[in-house]
Design brief:
Layout lengths: L14 H9 L3 H5 L3 H21 L23 H6 L2 H5 L7 H8 L20 H10 L3 H25 L7 H12 L1
Helix pairs in contact: 1-8, 3-8
Length: 184
């Protein structure tokens, strides 16, 4: 009867890999050496996010500058503006792909037609443009923001996967035993 295998130490959390997976989905897994999984996450989540943006005419990821005085929970900016557009609370977890919306929000001036760096990319559409998208559209705009929110929320799972690391780790004894069996 072989001796029992000693229990393994718990895996240490990897916050740097989690940060990388927040910035770009799957980058933390690539950093950990799980390249296939990382590329799969990257392609699928960013593809879902940008496809959702395309469905929404690239005008459905933004953080609006609104009047927060009537809000029930947050009567102050920027959380009050997130309360008025809760979609963005899910979209922001896609990472750097949603950062232009934050920069557009921080420097938003209604009288200026475009941001000097990003132009209209993830800029709050005018009220007339929003009405046009919803009135004259065929629900693609709504479906698009749903796709972008789903991509952001799924990235939370990717971030956790990078934080916790691989589910299984081969023990040094098991690896050595496997090498000895192959050698003999």
């Amino acid at each position: 009867m072989p001796p029992p295998i000693a229990p393994q130490k718990p895996r240490a959390l990897d916050p740097f890999a989690a940060l990388l997976s927040y910035l770009i989905p799957g980058l933390g897994q690539i950093y950990q050496g799980r390249v296939g999984k990382g590329i799969l996450f990257m392609v699928c989540l960013l593809g879902l996010f940008f496809y959702g943006m395309r469905l929404g005419s690239c005008e459905n990821v933004y953080l609006p500058d609104t009047n927060v005085q009537q809000n029930m929970v947050f009567g102050f900016k920027p959380l009050g503006d997130v309360e008025n557009r809760p979609h963005f609370a899910g979209q922001v977890f896609i990472g750097m792909a949603a950062w232009p919306a934050i920069l557009q929000y921080a420097s938003y001036e209604p009288q200026k037609p475009k941001h000097k760096l990003f132009g209209n990319w993830q800029r709050q559409p005018s009220e007339d443009r929003l009405n046009e998208l919803q009135r004259d559209g065929d629900k693609r705009w709504d479906l698009g923001w749903v796709y972008t929110v789903v991509a952001g929320v799924l990235n939370l799972l990717v971030i956790y996967d990078a934080l916790a690391g691989p589910a299984h780790k081969e023990s040094a004894e098991a690896a050595t035993g496997a090498k000895e069996k192959v050698a003999s």
